[in-house]
Design brief:
four-stranded parallel beta sheet, about 25% helix
């Protein structure tokens, strides 16, 4: 198929599309069969609500929900915005909580961060990741990708600090 003079977007003869292609969504509904992946945002505090407690059932529940809709899962682990960090970590280690300066006065959202490079915060995060690796969840065929959010929700605020 030619789309414009000199442009050819067709696949070579004998080629087939790669698996896991299609559109992705973050919605809880599948609006089209072309949507094949649903991204799941998972707060660290949901997975480690208390010191010494790790619970991956929220991830497993989301995977099961996606599977019921015929979708594969993309996992977004949210770990540095204050709202996602377990309260017990802030209470126990007293890391700084940094308010991001708004880019403009009418900016509708405000953000606070717990620096992930704080030694105790990093150590606790690494414990969670090690437990996640041992759980077998990252090895599942229906997990298409995992994204470890750093300093925000991917609105460019990574550069605020």
């Amino acid at each position: 198929m030619k789309t414009a003079a000199g442009w050819d977007w067709s696949l070579p003869a004998g080629s087939t599309p790669a698996p896991h292609t299609g559109f992705s969504t973050w919605s809880s509904k599948r609006f089209s069969p072309l949507v094949t992946i649903r991204g799941v945002f998972m707060a660290w505090k949901r997975l480690a609500p208390k010191e010494g407690v790790v619970d991956f059932s929220p991830i497993l529940d989301e995977i099961a929900s996606n599977k019921a809709m015929g979708l594969e899962t993309g996992l977004h682990l949210m770990n540095a915005e204050r709202q996602y960090v377990p309260d017990w970590i802030v209470e126990k280690y007293h890391p700084p909580v940094i308010d991001a300066i708004p880019l403009q006065a009418n900016q509708p959202w405000r953000m606070s961060f717990v620096p992930p490079w704080h030694p105790a915060v990093m150590a606790e995060w690494e414990k969670l990741l090690a437990a996640l690796a041992r759980s077998g969840i990252p090895q599942r065929a229906d997990i298409i990708y995992a994204y470890l959010n750093g300093l925000g929700a991917s609105r460019g605020e990574e550069l605020f600090l």
